[in-house]
Specification:
Blueprint (H helix, E strand, L loop, with lengths): L12 H4 L2 H16 L4 H17 L8 H21 L3 H6 L4 E4 L5 E3 H27 L2 H10 L4 H30 L10 H32 L18 H24 L9
Antiparallel strand pairs: 1-2
Helix pairs in contact: 2-6, 2-10, 3-6, 4-6, 7-8, 8-9
Length: 275
């Protein structure tokens, strides 16, 4: 079964951090990566993100499908950048080192390739952290952590429900797909693309209807239990902030400050090796 954004329980230091801590660190890490094109910093963050992935004891096979989608996105992103702005690197770095002339305005330059390298590094240092957050954060504990830092418990619980519902949707999609295939619907690669798209509609419609039915059931159950009547509520799986949580947040704040400092001292967001 294909796993998309599932919580994967492992006995690791990353799993022991609170959900709110991981969310704050994710936001700070992403901002640090997005605000800078300083290649050494992006390279260091990429290596660090891969090390954190290993510390969390996650395996590539656990999220292989998501990794495949991310790789396709990175390739498409770079191809579209080159198609619509083939001289973007030249305009940023102020020089032009032609490596290969193609058709029309399309010229491969060292500056453009270096710019694409930075784009790849940006994705490579943020995608593992996003996956790390999703795969190591228990939805119920995350909701409790959000509520503890001031977020309304109604919003917190809605987020937890959304995260917990993803595996259920995957499981139901698989069951409906197997049922349709048992009825003779061809969904393998042997069928044409048009037939496969038609077959997908026979899955999506029952999936949407069953999801609506599940939503109504959950909504009625919550209403009968008096959800939303009181201003506060207790949490079964809540965690208090530990020293490790505070340390991780401080390190991510320092990383964000370092990114801004490098940009300020460099006078530009871009690291320029061509000058």
């Amino acid at each position: 079964m294909i796993n998309l954004f599932n919580y994967i329980d492992r006995p690791s230091p990353i799993h022991r951090l609170t959900g709110a801590c991981k969310l704050i660190c994710l936001i700070l890490w992403t901002l640090a990566a997005m605000t800078s094109f300083y290649t050494p910093l992006l390279l260091a963050m990429t290596v660090a993100s891969l090390l954190l992935f290993r510390i969390a004891k996650l395996k590539v096979k656990d999220i292989s499908f998501v990794v495949g989608l991310m790789l396709v996105y990175i390739v498409l992103n770079n191809v579209l950048i080159f198609l619509f702005s083939p001289d973007h690197g030249t305009s940023i770095y102020g020089t032009e080192t032609v490596l290969l002339k193609l058709v029309g305005p399309y010229v491969i330059t060292a500056e453009q390739l270096f710019y694409h390298l930075n784009v790849i590094l940006k994705n490579a240092c943020t995608v593992p952290i996003v996956l790390l957050f999703v795969c190591t954060t228990n939805p119920s504990e995350f909701a409790a952590s959000l509520n503890r830092v001031g977020v309304s418990y109604k919003i917190s619980y809605a987020v937890a429900l959304a995260l917990r519902y993803i595996p259920d949707i995957q499981r139901e999609y698989r069951d409906i797909s197997l049922a349709q295939q048992a009825r003779g619907t061809e969904m393998s690669k042997k069928a044409s693309l048009v037939n496969r798209l038609k077959a997908a509609s026979t899955i999506l419609i029952p999936l949407i209807l069953s999801s609506m039915d599940r939503i109504e059931t959950i909504s009625n159950a919550m209403e009968l239990r008096g959800f939303g009547k009181s201003g506060k509520r207790t949490w079964y799986s809540g965690k208090k902030f530990s020293k490790m949580d505070i340390l991780c947040i401080v390190l991510c704040v320092a990383l964000m400050a370092l990114s801004l400092l490098i940009t300020f001292l460099n006078g530009s967001r871009y690291y320029n090796p061509f000058m």
